[in-house]
# Entry
Amino acid sequence: MDVRDTIIDAVRSALADLGVDPLPDVVQLERPANPEHGDWSTNVAMASAKVAGRNPRELGTALVERLTAVPPPHVVGVEVAGPGFVNFRLAETWLHEVLADVVAAGTDGWGRLDSGAGTRVIVEFVSANPTGPLHAGHGRGACYGDSVARLYERCGYEVEREFYVNDSGVQMQKFAASLAARAAGGEVPEDGYHGQYIVDWAAEMPAGVDPLEWGYERALADHRSVLESMSIHFDSWFSERSMISSGAMDATLADLRAAGAVYEEGGAVWLRSTDHGDDKDRVLVKSDGQPTYLMPDVAYHRDKFARADRLVDVFGADHHGYVVRMHAAMSVLGHDREDLQIVITQLVNLQRDGREVRLSKRTGEMVELAYVVDEVGADAARFTYLLLSVDSAQTFDMDLVASQVNENPVFYVQYAHARIHSVVDRAAAGGSVRGSLAEVDLSLLTHPREVQVMRSLHELPDVVARACRERAPHQVTTWVRELASAFHGFYQDCRVVGPEVDPATTRARLWLVEGVRIGLAVALDLLGVSAPTEMWRDDGDGEA
RNA sequence: GCCCUCGUAGCUCAGUCGGAUAGAGCGACCGCCUCCUAAGCGGUAGGCCACAGGUUCGAUUCCUGUCGAGGGCGCCA
# Structure
């Protein structure tokens, strides 16, 4: 049982003893920013003051008396402070227990949760049109979606990664026409695609093939290959065409009609989305009998709900208008709003050679994702894409990510992992092994640097839980940078192996190092970034 | 005009269901390798949390409004 739970239980029963009724639903226990405020702190005296009919300080004082009389395990001090906070100071023994838990759980178990309990979730992301290569902007959604999927898996969900292939629209026709025009040596139509890749692909295209089908395969091959190079693997590529042939759209329309959410006007079929917060109703089938883009998308989401309990859609900022109408449609079909999570990732502004590059397939200038990965490496690309909250626009500076290693946090974190392997190897070479956990004396770990490392390790399960709940993998990025920082500090001040280090201390520190290795490995895996066992700086002088 | 996101240190950004003295990296300045990888560590300087109200014991956080930045608003996809 985690210390936090034992403290919360103790607070609860103390409140009950003091006649507080009803007891608060939750007893908040948080880590104070200021070390003087102890290891843990609760605001329960302030929160329950009204119910208890006494002032917060007084209630806090009463709690302190109770808790001091019978302190929970590891607790060595309880004080009331400020407006009524109750602060707990713990002996370092609790962190030694945490470390033992970490290494016992290992990379497979530490920070693994079962909150998902087998709930099936489909994470849909990227879903770029098969009309050209993925560009740098797609990279963000790709890394984000995959990392969210990894978080869900870590939390016990049954996850499917899905790419929706928009393979039956007008855009495909334009793409094919552009390819055909180029292949025939002519100019691309005004409303076609003008990127350099059209020229390149047209040159590749064999004579006599259907440009639409050939271009389609060519684009998909590009998508697959660059995604694979970033360790992003989709479980399914869902074709829009397949829905047309399966009759899914007719069935969906029938369901919407049965729910009374559809009407006809001006020869078109409308969805009454205004009943669900939209500012205007939306056309599902045009007056010429053709479906709008919304129609297959609704049918697609209906199909996904037949296969999963919960959906996550990851879209770029330019699709945010889509959110309300899709929620409206799913609501008509009887799904809870909570079960469809639509995440909008803000734009990526790519910077190269000190200037901004617009990311638009139609205007022609674009930077392919494959180029970015080639230039900066898959690890640096992924880590950089996952550095920020997707709610913030991101400026991705290619030159910075590729060359200025000092400023690049991915190396800082990976270097910590490499250093660990170096230490362990060095220890083994000198005959030092950490031995069995049962025989090691972890209570030797009392240096402030060691304590900081253990505190950081303790946070991982909370970080995973929150990052998953909020679909915010950047919180993992933030945490792993902190763990790396704690480790580098420890490494600086606490020598692990050497003649001047007591063997028992070496053993304890080797276990601490193992704990850090586990933390780094788990977090980097959630981010899809590799954990190298060695890294050597390239000074450019040929010497390693 | 309406909708979405953002506004925190010189720059790039974190900031837990609302908590106590708001953090990190980079940049600037000053230090630390005879020693497990210096892609490292320590220190100094740097803040009206855009602005104005509201909610309350308490607001960077929640609500309203204003200003500013980016994106989106079609029987296009």
